[in-house]
Amino acid sequence: MTAPAVEGILAEHADLELRLADPEVQADQTQARKLGRRYSEIGPIVAAARELAAARDDAAAARELATEDPSFAAEARELAERIAGLEQRLAGLLVPRDPHDGDDIVLEVKSGEGGEESALFAGDLVRMYTRYAERRGWMVEVLDSVGSDLGGYKDITLSVRSRGTGADGVWSALKYEGGVHRVQRVPVTESQGRVHTSAAGVLVYPDTGEEATIEIDENDLRIDVFRSSGHGGQSVNTTDSAVRITHLPTGIVVSCQNERSQLQNRARAMEVLRSRLQAQAEAEAAAQASADRRSQVRTVDRSERIRTYNFPENRISDHRVGYKAYNLSNVLDGDLNGVLDALAAADRAATVAS
Q1: pLDDT tens-digit readout, 334-351
Q2: Taking a C-beta distance cutoff of 8 angstroms, is the pair 171, 104 a contact?
Q3: pLDDT value at position 91?
Q4: Among 140, 116, 114, which residue's Cα sits nearest to residue 232?
Q5: What are the DSSP E strand ranges found in the chain?
């Protein structure tokens, strides 16, 4: 990125600082959060740019003094080395970021091939993500779920939210999780003790909510109401408060039954639908711009796996980046740092290379 571009970021940072101090902006929580995320995102760039400018000034002064006092020559050389390091650091910070990295997410887990065993594995994935979120201090909310008879999930939708306005939100960590996850283990339903393979699908997209720019025509919606249900489908209340919205042009279906009233469930379901449609529109635009774009797998097919969880070997393998570790029990308990760091590093390397 050129020097004028860095100057533009410095000017933007100063402007954000003034706007965030405005009481009217703080009164609008949505706007304040959006501006706060951007302020946090460019903060490290501003700090590095200022440090680099100061080091260049010091180096210039040291070189000038070295003409009269040779003892300053060593300091000038040290500053030159420091400047080279700062320039490299700033270049790394200026690599284009994912604009959604500060966003919260909606995460869907669906059972696939394998029947009840697949539903139980979907439950394992839900617990894995929930425990990882707890380690990060994030909030997890179940928006909708369809349980299985043995305590797993046929289908579940979660909202995962951070508590702050930092540049690195939930999306920055979990955006790589979309795809088909395969499990190899002896099912609890198997009496012969044979290792079976089944799969569950994960879909993750930014929870842009009210910030989504997608316009939805009410005539394109079919809205159904029903009673909230728990595991196995049993009703957990006596009123039709749960809401299911079908977007007819795309076939996208969103359900919400966690809120206390039908009105609240409808409002939250509409936010999720906007996020789904926004993510779909952005994916289509990215596909047109880049034919080799990496996309999430939308079907629950074992042949289109991104990751394998092998219980007999206590092994986890991510097939996209060749990651392999023998700490599956820890991963399922929420210790996802190793595999997520490997995916993020590969993504950064690909971004720099392009």
Answers
A1: 999 999 999 998 888 887
A2: yes
A3: 82
A4: 116
A5: 105-111, 139-147, 153-161, 179-185, 196-206, 221-226, 242-247, 252-256, 305-310, 315-318, 323-325
Q: Which two tokens stand for residue 42?
A: 């460019």
**Residue 171 has which token pair?**
């999306």
Confidence of residue 169 (pLDDT cuts 50, 70, 90): confident
Residue 98 DSSP code: P
Residue whose C-alpha is closest to residue 193's, from 113, 111, 309, 312:
312
Q: Encoding tokens for residue 159?
A: 């909202």
Residue 207, token pair as written in the block: 């929870």
Structure-block tokens of residue 321: 């980046």
Long-range contacts of 232-238 (CB under 8 A, 24+ apart): 232/147, 232/148, 232/149, 233/146, 233/147
Looking at residue 168, its amino acid is: D
Q: How is residue 41 written in tokens?
A: 């995102």
Phi-psi region of 216 (alpha: psi -120 to 50; beta: other; left: phi over 0): beta
CATH of 105-353, one of 3.30.70.1660, 1.50.10.20, 3.50.50.60, 3.40.50.300: 3.30.70.1660
Measured in Å, how far apart are the chain's first and last C-alpha atoms? 14
Identify the three-state secondary structure at position 255: strand
In 3D, which of 214, 204, 213 has the Cα closest to residue 295?
204
This prediction's pTM = 0.73
Residues 163/156, Cβ–Cβ less than 8 Å: no
CB under 8 Å, gap of 24 or more: what pairs does 329-337 form? Answer: 331/128, 332/124, 332/127, 332/128, 333/128, 333/131, 334/128, 334/129, 334/130, 334/131, 334/132, 334/133, 334/134, 334/135, 335/132, 335/135, 336/128, 336/132
